[in-house]
Amino acid sequence: MGALSERRAARYGFSTAAILLGGLVLASCQSGPAVDLANVDVAQASTENISSLTQVVSANPQDPEAYNVRGSAYGRGGRYQQALKDFDTAISLNPNFYQAYANRALIYRFMGDQNKAMADYNRALQINPSYDAAYIGRGNVYRQAGRTQEAFNDFQKAIQLDTTDARAYHNRGLIYQGQGQHAYAIEDFSTAISLAPDASEPYNGRGLSYLAMKQEDNAFADFNMAIKLDAKNAEAWTNQALIYEQRGEKAKAAKSYREAVRLKPTYQPAKDGLSRTQ
Question: Does the keyword Methyltransferase apply (predicted)?
Answer without folding.
Answer: no
